[in-house]
Amino acid sequence: MLGSMSQHLRVLVGLLDDLTLKDMETRLANWLLKRCPRPLADAPAIVQLDRTKRVLAAEMGATSETLSRTLAKFRDKKLLRVKGNTITVAKPSNLQKLLNQHLGEL
């Protein structure tokens, strides 16, 4: 039981860190990379949204408009494509580079 509580606490601390210490681009890049099967790959990766964009935005501590603008910014940078509930990360390694830049890890 203690192990289960410890794991739950780690998850909550990670979520709190995501919400308080990172901007929306960083949170979204991190969220997408966690769902890519091979985040350092150069091949496209498919991420299926299992929730609405409005719910995802709320979970990230943003409005749906902010999420949409951030997805559009990533699309303009050729990092991803969005069609309905499917997000295709063009090259996860490029998204990882962007995340590292936002985190100050060059």
Short description:
By secondary structure, the chain is mainly alpha-helical. It is built from five helices and three strands.
Q: Care to describe what's here?
A:
It is a single chain. This protein is 59% helix and 11% strand. β2 and β3 form a beta hairpin. It is built from five helices and three strands. The protein is globular and about 45 Å long. With 106 residues, it is mainly α. A three-stranded antiparallel β-sheet has the order 1-3-2. α2 packs antiparallel against α5 and α3 crosses α4.
Please supply descriptive tags for the structure shown above:
106 residues, mainly alpha, 3-stranded antiparallel beta sheet, 5 helices, 59% helix
* Content of β-strand: 5-15%
Rg calculated over all Cα atoms: 14 Å
List the strand order in the largest sheet: 1-3-2
N to C succession of SSEs:
HHEHHEEH
- Helix amount, in percent? 55-70%
Mean pLDDT: 88
Largest sheet: 3 strands, antiparallel
**Low-pLDDT ranges:** none
Q: Outline, from the CA principal axes? A: globular
Strand tally, please? 3
- Number of H- or I-type helical stretches: 5
Structural category is mainly alpha
Distance between the termini: 40 Å
